[in-house]
Amino acid sequence: MIQVLIVDDEPKLREGLRSFIDWEAYGYCVVDTASNGNEALEKYQQLRPGLVIADIRMPGMDGLQLIGHLRELDPSLHILILSGYADFEYAKRAIQQRADGYLLKPVDEDELIDYLGTIKSQIEEESQAEQWRLTTREWGRESFILSLMVEHPGDPEQLWSRAEELGLAWKCYQVLLLSTVLDETDYGEKLAAVRTAMTRLLEAKGRGYVFSHHSQIGVLLNDPILPVEWTELYSNIRNVVEALDIDFSLALGPKVCRIEEVAYSYGVANRLNKNHFFLGNDRLLTEELLVEQKYDGGASVHELDEQIFYAVEIGNHELVKQLIEQKGACYISEGLTEEQIKLHFAEMLTALLGRAIKQSQELQQRNREFTEYLSDIYKAWTLSEVYEKAQQFLKKMMSELGSNECSKHQEVKMMLELIHRNYNENLKLETLSGILNYNSAYLGKLFKNETGEYFNTYLDKVRIEKAKGLLEEGLKVYQVAERVGYTNVDYFHSKFRKYVGTSPSAYRKTSNN
Fold first, then answer.
1. Response regulatory domain: which residues (predicted)?
2. What are the tens digits of pLDDT across the range 205-219?
3. What is the DSSP string of 396-425?
4. Are 279 and 289 in contact (CB under 8 A)?
């Protein structure tokens, strides 16, 4: 509806004109009336109507003076003049001041309706033209902003001149960049929703202008985001984006002082988003986070795999968590990519599942179910999410193995169980001491006191007993050596002769006879 303000010093005429026709039927609404020019100016500034109908003769300020003041406030305002026959020449002067027309008193209904139709069409055309102008300006501005993101955007003087034309000549600049991963099915709709949210949160508040680039929504800021604002800004954007079920990362480039340096701010923000897998998505990513992550040494990846398996077997959830994070840090220090890290974690979990299946009939029956869980590793958006999914996988495996957190008086019992279940593995006292969180010398002494045997001696005896059974079944010596954990056949021979008193071959012949 086009709002109308009626101005006349005669109350009857004002109210009569208000009820003269069905204004709404023609797309108008009379919002108020005024009795003189001064009152009309005051109400105009409050209401900002699209059409003013004013008497040409009023005390204090006449119609011509009112038109002059209204034109200063809004050059495009539409005005109709009311006049008597005696004021006809006066009314013509008003028309020369760009009044839309004049109506002789008493007002003719058809004549007024004709004017209203003409003015309504003009207002609609003006609105469309203004919308097109704004749209064209927005397109031009966004295109210019995107051109600033390249490494060499052009001559600085020309850039500044164009920036002045588009309202982008600022003292400083900063790029805020949101990166998403969207399915093709709902790509456009969700991206538009994210852009609308960024517009509401920043552009509508005069902080800068929003732009779109592929799956990214960015804001070229004229007012840098201060550190005290980071948490609230991230929280507001996260609430919107997560409601759309979108994985995202949000990065803030550094502040720059020249328009040709916008590309640098964008480049840092883009790099931060590309590293979201390592940096996480639980905060606003900033330049300070781009530091090299290093692994402080310690166990190798293979040793960590062994420790993780034993930690699973004894049900030490906290240790499993620590070891998984150590493994991730080790991969980072080796410079592995996101895809490589996911692959290695999936391979580790597959290997651990294979070892666990040998010990649990229940796991054998649920092998397919566990295998499906592994696909979640590849869907992880961040490294911390990989850790979480790996821990969930192993926690479920622990429950199937019946593992329980060990207490301090059960260390030797747990070591014995590990030996009897994993005698064919490369078991070391140092590995178990790390799992049980004890000094290896102390743990070895504790084991000797409880069993009467040194750890390695006890392990050898268990292996030899297992070897005797396999030899009695008719397996070849090298096969038996591999089955019980000896990679060197000669070393197996010496150990067997030490504990049995004869060679493996001789023992097999005797058992066969």
1. 3-120
2. 999 999 988 788 999
3. HHHHHHT--PPPGGGHHHHHHHHHHHHTTS
4. yes
